[in-house]
């Protein structure tokens, strides 16, 4: 993961490997994103300069009130999608879950 700077191609760091990894979502189900990978690495104690591109991505998505938006939802089938997308949070709006996860990553990475 570090060779790829979390979300890029190792042989060309100017190219995004999987564009959907740049859209932060919750719940992720079987998919992932750059935020989840950062969360895992920081929980394992990693603080590597190759994580900085992804850290900068996280910081660039913060709004003026210090929140992050829900950008991605699971595929439109099953209980979780119906419940989450209509009752809990809406795609495009500030997300308590994404904001919590972003703040946890930033706190650990910069401490």
Structure report:
The protein has 111 residues and is mainly α. The protein has one domain. Helix content is 41%, strand content 6%. The protein has 4 helices and 2 strands; from the N terminus they run ββαααα. The protein has a two-stranded antiparallel ribbon. It is globular and about 40 Å long.
Provide the descriptors you would attach to this structure in a database record.
41% helix; single chain; mainly alpha; 111 residues
Q: Secondary-structure element order, as H and E?
A: EEHHHH
**Tally of discrete structural domains:** 1
Strand content: 5-15%
Instruction: Give the strand order of the largest sheet, numbering strands 1, 2, ... along the chain.
Output: 1-2
The rough form would be described as globular
Decide which structural class fits the backbone. Answer: mainly alpha
CA radius of gyration: 14 Å
Number of strands: 2
Number of helices: 4
Pick out the low-confidence regions: none
Biggest sheet statistics: 2 strands, antiparallel
Task: Kindly report the oligomeric state of this protein.
Answer: single chain
End-to-end Cα distance, whole Å, is 21 Å
pLDDT averaged residue by residue:
89
In which range does the helix fraction lie? 40-55%
């Amino acid at each position: 993961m570090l060779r790829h700077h979390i979300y890029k191609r190792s042989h060309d760091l100017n190219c995004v490997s999987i564009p959907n990894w740049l859209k932060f979502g919750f719940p992720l189900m079987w998919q992932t994103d750059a935020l989840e990978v950062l969360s895992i690495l920081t929980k394992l104690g990693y603080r590597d300069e190759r994580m900085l591109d992804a850290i900068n991505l996280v910081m660039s998505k913060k709004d003026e009130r210090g929140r992050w938006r829900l950008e991605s939802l699971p595929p439109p089938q099953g209980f979780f999608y119906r419940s989450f997308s209509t009752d809990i949070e809406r795609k495009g709006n500030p997300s308590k879950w994404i904001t919590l996860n972003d703040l946890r990553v930033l706190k650990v990475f910069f401490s």
